[in-house]
Amino acid sequence: MLSIFSKRPCIKCFSETSKILLRCSSQTATSTIERNKDQLKRQIVEYRHVYPEFLPDPKIEYRNLIREKLERADMVARRTQVDIPEFYVGSILAVTSSDRHNPEKPHRFVGICIKREYCGLRASFIVRNMIDHQGIEIMYNMYDPTIHKVEVLRLEKRLDDELLYLRDALPEYSTFDSNMDAEILPEGTPVPINPIKVKLKPRPWLERWERKNLKGIEELDLPERFFKRAKELEKPWEKYDLMKEYMRTIPEEEQIEIFSEVQAELHKLEVQRKKMKRKRVIVKPSKLA
Amino acid sequence: MALALNIVSRTSHSISVLEQQMQKLSLVVFNSKREKHLNPKPRLRNPTWLVRKTRSHTDDPITFENREFIKEIVQDKLVQSNHAIDEIATNNVIWTPNIQRTGVIARKIGVYPLWLKNGSKMQTTLLQILDNHVIKYYTPDNYKPHKEIRPKVYNKKGCILLGAEFGDPSNFTKDYCGLFKESGVLPTKWLARFFVSPEGALPLGATISARHFQVGNYVDVRGKTIDRGFQGVMKRHGFKGMPASHGVTKTHRRGGNIGGGGEKARVWPGTKMPGHMGNTYRVAKGLKVLRLNTKYNVIWVSGQAIPGETNSIVYVYDTKIPTRTPTNPLPLPTLLQQTDEDVPEDIYDESIHIFSDPTIIFNEK
Fold first, then answer.
1. How many Å lie between the alpha carbon of B349 and the closest alpha carbon of chain A?
2. Among the CATH numbers 2.40.30.10, 3.40.190.10, 1.10.10.60, 3.40.50.1820, which is that of B87-146+154-228+276-348?
3. Contacts of residue A95, Cβ cutoff 8 Å, sequence gap at least 6
4. Exposed, middle or buried by CB within 10 Å (0-12, 13-18, 19+), for A235?
5. What ipTM was reported for this prediction?
6. pLDDT score of B1
7. B233-242, pLDDT tens digit by residue?
8. Closest CA in chain A for residue B355
9. Residue B275 has pLDDT above 90, yes or no
């Protein structure tokens, strides 16, 4: 509609053209608002994966609009001081934080993110690595002011939402070089999914992994009775439970409301991060030479 | 016929005579000193403001237009009472530890962590101070408690009745709305009573904001605990229960023995047993105010074990723990709000790390 109006030649008298112009302007205003809304919607589809902790608690009885607003303001305030990039369970991170037992040197820990949980300021993630043949896991609070830097060395997802089974897997699956270089993905590419299948150690395990319906593990070498019991205990009807799904998720209208509040700030931080990234890319070859 | 009537009148006469005689007897009995406890005065008398709150819903024959009109009037009054100007008599009395100020009605809106400047994490509870209005004030001589405990009370306190959160007056009873007549405040959903020293008295209709409290001071918070229903001994008192296996049958979560034998041969009063858990008023004492938000009237208070669920009503007042009384004088009777004053949106305690501050770096000492 808009394009037709603008391309129309104005041969008629002045009053008519002015009318048309007026109509045009009002239309452009509404269309820009709509376009902005569309853009916001598209961004928010991404935001719910990039910033899952900005969404309120899935438990309805813990929610309060004012508390969440204050919490989000605090989260954005912290994000202006530290760059917390987009990462997922399965990504390889390097977290630098100040160490009270070694005040001179901040502590840098490299490892794979095996879990992300909670929302708001209490959001946390677990990083795992093997150091001197010993599995080490550190749980970081995402908004802890002692964290200096969170670097994503390899941005990728795995087949499962939690990788706690790496604790019972062979050590090579959770061993990462602490001097690893960051792998830079070209802009605009979707986050790659690593289809690796992990081989678990023989039992005893920390949990009964055969009951968890995991996709990222190799076929288990267990007696038949284990699978039989797992089959008995599985709840295949849960994915059809609409009420459960409704309680677990936040409706899109609410998400738009929440993200439109912090969108301006988050977008500014994103632009800043991109600038920094470009700088880093340019600096690298000079260092090598 | 006449005979029957005669009999009836005669019997009724005799009954009345008997009744009179009995009354005389009973008077003699009840007036005697020996039997004075037979019909004693009630120990507990409900306070005057404890009246039936909500009225039963009826479909009144009101037209749609009239209903809208009533809604409009309520809305107008709401706007008016929000803009009620406070006239707090400043009697220039400086606060001393023996002066008791009023408390406030608040809502528990959630728990989230704050970090201290030394890098350690601290769980805090957020309490939103509601729009508190003074509804009644009883002077120390005027206030008659429902239970007289001591014959003589030194340093007698007055009593302030506060209301918070305006409700729809058409949902409340006439008696309940009558409580608010004196102050001119719209009927509120919540009422609370606080004892105050005569110096801490507030005029009717005055409002109290979050800045009534100061950062770094301590408060007590009273609330109704979460109702957990009838619970066993493991959940209610934290008993250990009994083993799951090794021949144990039917006693995995039971309390076990409840008393000794021999001469005792009974259960001691107060023995921990299964029963109803929660839904009682409890006070969390000595909580530090770590942060204030003046825009939303929210205070951050240390600790996460404050009685009540999220979004429940709690009562907040200056702590009564003698070792935690504030050293600096508090605003008395409450803080006067000046419109031209520049108040920061967030006020922090010294120990708290502000989120917009740079990352914490430990210095070697």
1. 16
2. 2.40.30.10
3. A108, A109, A127, A138, A140, A147, A149, A150, A151
4. exposed
5. 0.83
6. 46
7. 999 999 999 9
8. A78
9. yes
